[in-house]
Amino acid sequence: MTTTMTASTPLLEARGLTRKFGGVVALDRLDLAIERNEILGLIGPNGSGKTTFFNVATGIYRADAGHITFDGVETTGATSRAIYRAGVSRTFQRSRLSLPLSIFDNVMIGNHKRLNQGLWFNLVRRRAFKREFETNYHAARTLIEVFEPQLAGRMFEPVAGLPMIDRRRIEICRALISQPKLLLLDEPSAGMTHEETTALMDDILQIRTLNKNLAIVIVEHEMGVIERITDRCAVLNFGRKIAEGPYRQVAADRQVQEAYLGVA
Amino acid sequence: MIAGEQHAKGALLPGVVAVALTTAYLIALLAVEKQPLIIGLLALAIAAVLAANWLGWLAPVSRSFADREEPLAGLAIAAAFAVAVFFHDDHFVLLLVCTVLLYTVATLGLNIQFGYAGVLNFAGASFFGIGAYTSAVFNAHTAVPHLLVLLIGGLIAALIGSLLLLPVLRTRGHYAALVTIAFALLLKTFLEVNDVLGGPQGLQVKGMKIFGWSFNDNIEIGKISLSFYWSYFVVSMLLLIGAFILVRRLERSWIGLNLDALRLDETAANCFGLDVARWKITAFTLGNFLIGMAGALFGMIGGFVAPNNYTFADSLLLVSILLLGGIGNPWGLVVATVIVVVVPEKLQTIQEYRFLLYALLVIMVLLFRPEGLLPRPVRRYFPGWRP
């Protein structure tokens, strides 16, 4: 990418995005733009296509129709690997950490593109490997300290023994360690108490103050969270965008209320 | 354990004591001939391990091995040499020791495939056999130096293994395992009907020769006579050391992390840029290479190779060593191989029933200690390293 993008182009832009599962249309000609540096809340009833959008945007599913561009480059049909390399990271609705592995290992999985993967380097050049290991240890530790200083002292303990909130923190660290341009958070508060959710959202806001170039899309059912941390919201229903704008404006929208409350 | 980083470095002594006791015990077990005595010794070992476990003496030993691996590995090598010196003119025991060493190399290969990458290979014995056939053909028809033949054995095993790559990559879990079973059966049938490779009778394998010095002659040093298996013992030991270092470095690198990541969650691994196919291929090929090298040397030691030596049952044996020892832990594999190879040889009364006993042993382990005798510890890239 040699051309510098003007501030006006969105970071990620989906046009006419469609994805069907058999007869179910999960995404129906969806148009959605994510601006640089914004926090966008993606809301909508269950089955409205939020997670499907994440899965198509990260290359897990292919779109049946439509286009996606990321950072000015077409990524429709690109593999998950290519999309990650371009700078998109995500967390999953149901935590997908590698439980037997240590905190450090799990964070390093997210840093794949910045680690030297050569056989010779890894097996033979152990001194050089050690230097890379130490640099990355400190990077991971610094990042985890932002979230929970206590975890930073337990880098080589298995994730399996940690409570849900710490696992979520590690999942977010795994997504952030490679310094992505776009972070997709899929229901980060699932399975957590209200207090834990509040603590986690403070952490996310803090990450934003550290990295001004990061855009975040968050799928969330807790409207308190959405109201507090998002700049803007997009509401999906049956795979289509039915409203867009600041939370207060969207929440007052009649169509949105109908979608959520089922008013005919 | 509070704050993992702060705990004191494990002491060397428990590891040293464990290695010394094990060596003394092994020498005793190998020296004894009377069946009741052997049964007594085996019962003693089981009782001792259970008691040590109950008294909490095993934890310091595993900490010792975790933090002081290098000196203890050196000691373990010295211990193996001590056993070989003690039985310097005993062909039977030395052959048994070589078998243990080479089976350990083969299971280290399986460990890369199954233990790290999660690719289950039920054709381990087939790749071992491919190595042995390579030795037979090359030693009979070419003048390639025999150490190089070992390397070629590994390469040919890896090459033939790559025929399986496509089905292994396209299938997952049980289905990939079925592909390897089918391959093992196909290979056996192919060897049986193929007259060039000796058919069902198999082939003779010429013994190893390095710089004109034949390994199949006994060695005379002054008045002491060493069994000709001594030279094979040394080469087997070197091969094991090489394989062990390779597996250790592999595990303690980003590649080891990649393999774990794709085994545990392929989708998540994909989302973080991992090339799943590339790393599965790397693990499968590297594993078969080690198995093939071990087989090539084993062929030269045994002097003979036939389709019936390397059957599906032998592949199961290799997998059971992996399950017994502790998937992913090379030290566990050493211990498990000793148990699985030595015990039936010494306990002649159970020879007929050995597969029944392996099956029972594996079921017991899966029920009561699913992570194996020596479970794999959390990865430390540089043991004893402190930030």
Can you offer a commentary on this structure?
The complex is a heterodimer of chains A (264) and B (387). By secondary structure, chain A is α/β, with parallel strands linked by helices. Chain A has a domain at 1-87 and 218-264: Rossmann fold, CATH 3.40.50. Chain A is built from 11 helices and 10 strands. Chain A has helices spanning 50-57, 80-86, 103-109, 119-123, 126-147, 149-152, 164-176, 194-210, 223-229, 247-251, 254-261, and strands at 12-21, 24-34, 39-43, 65-70, 73-74, 88-90, 182-186, 215-219, 232-237, 240-245. In chain A, strands 6-7-8-3-9-10 form a 6-stranded mixed beta sheet, sandwiched between helices. Chain A has a 4-stranded antiparallel beta sheet with strand order 2-1-4-5, covered by helices on one side. In chain A, helix 3 (103-109) packs parallel to helix 7 and helix 5 packs across helix 7. The model of chain B is unreliable at 1-6 (pLDDT under 50). In chain B, the strands form 3 sheets. In chain B, strands 1-6 form a two-stranded antiparallel sheet. A two-stranded antiparallel ribbon of chain B has the order 2-3. A two-stranded antiparallel ribbon of chain B has the order 4-5. In chain B, strand 4 (219-221) and strand 5 form a beta hairpin. The longest helix of chain B has 27 residues, at 276-302. Chain B has a domain at 91-348: ABC transporter involved in vitamin B12 uptake, BtuC (Orthogonal Bundle). Chain B is built from 16 helices and 6 strands. The relative contact order of chain B is 0.15. Chain B is mainly alpha-helical and 387 residues long. Classes of the chains: A alpha/beta (264), B mainly alpha (387). The interface between A and B is large, with 43 and 33 residues.
